[in-house]
Design a protein that fits this description.
This protein starts with a helix and ends in a 14-residue tail after the last helix. Helix 3 packs antiparallel against helix 4 (91-125). The longest helix is centred in the middle third of the chain and has 35 residues, at 91-125. The protein is built from 5 helices and 3 strands; from the N terminus they run H-E-H-H-E-E-H-H. By secondary structure, the protein is mainly α. Strands 1-3-2 form a 3-stranded antiparallel beta sheet.
Length: 178
């Protein structure tokens, strides 16, 4: 693993810790994690391997990332405070985030320090064509986790904002229909 790999992986893991303290939900809440995975994707995503069972591997890992992301978004508290949307990652959300992001880091470390032969045997047995299939699968898992978590948070924030917004049509303050 390169220094860049370490920094990106650690930054992705640490994102959720920034949200353990309640803070405003704003553009930075979305742009920082999206920027990190976009950088990661630009460095390592070189097409979509389609031979053998590569697509199955990619679909399964991306699916796991999406499930972790949606669940993490559901277990993130969103509320309106003085007109501002506030966000706070709960313990379950943090555990799911670290599980997803940390598992990829652990896998990379394991492969780099003795697990490569096991991954090679597994790949041969399951018709996975090589290293790029694994890189793509793990990268798209991270992208899916980030995008689905942020999408879930966005949808939930819109629901919270609408539910707390006073009605401005239909009935006047005096109770008469407009």
């Amino acid at each position: 693993m390169t220094l860049t790999d370490w920094l990106v992986d650690i930054a992705l893991i640490l994102i959720v810790f920034r949200q353990l303290r309640e803070g405003p939900l704003g553009p930075r809440s979305y742009l920082i994690p999206l920027g990190i995975v976009a950088f990661f994707a630009s460095q390592y995503l070189h097409g979509l391997p389609t031979e053998g069972n590569d697509l199955v591997l990619v679909a399964v890992t991306a699916g796991v990332g999406a499930v972790l992301g949606i669940a993490g978004g559901i277990f993130t508290r969103i509320r309106l405070l003085n007109g501002d949307l506030m966000i706070k990652a709960g313990a379950v959300s943090a555990v799911l985030w670290v599980l997803g992001m940390g598992s990829r880091l652990a896998f990379q470390l394991w492969v780099d320090h003795g697990g490569a032969d096991d991954v090679g045997r597994f790949s041969i047995e399951h018709r996975i064509t090589g290293q790029q299939a694994w890189v793509t699968a793990l990268l798209l898992m991270a992208v899916a986790e980030v995008v689905t978590r942020l999408a879930t948070i966005f949808v939930r924030s819109q629901v919270v904002a609408r539910a707390t917004r006073p009605a401005t049509h239909g009935v006047s303050l005096t109770g008469r229909v407009r």
